[in-house]
Amino acid sequence: MVGIVIVAHSRTLAEGVAEVARAMGVGKAVVEPAGGDPDGGLGTSIVAVERAVEAASDGDAGVLLLADIGSSVLTAEMVVEDAREGTVLLADAPLVEGAVAAASMAAAGADLAAVHAAAESARDHRKRT
Amino acid sequence: MIGLTGPAADRWIRRAAALVSADAGELTRLDAAIGDGDHGHNLDRGFAAAVAALPADAPAGRVLIAAGRALVAKTGGASGPLYGTMLRRAGRVLDDCDDPDAADLGAALRAALDGVRELGRAEEGDKTMVDALAPAVAAYAAALDGGAPLPGAARAAADAAAAGADATVPMQARKGRASYLGERSVGHLDPGAASTALVLRALAETLEG
Question: What quaternary arrangement does the UniProt entry report (chain A) (predicted)?
Answer without folding.
Answer: Homodimer. The dihydroxyacetone kinase complex is composed of a homodimer of DhaM, a homodimer of DhaK and the subunit DhaL.
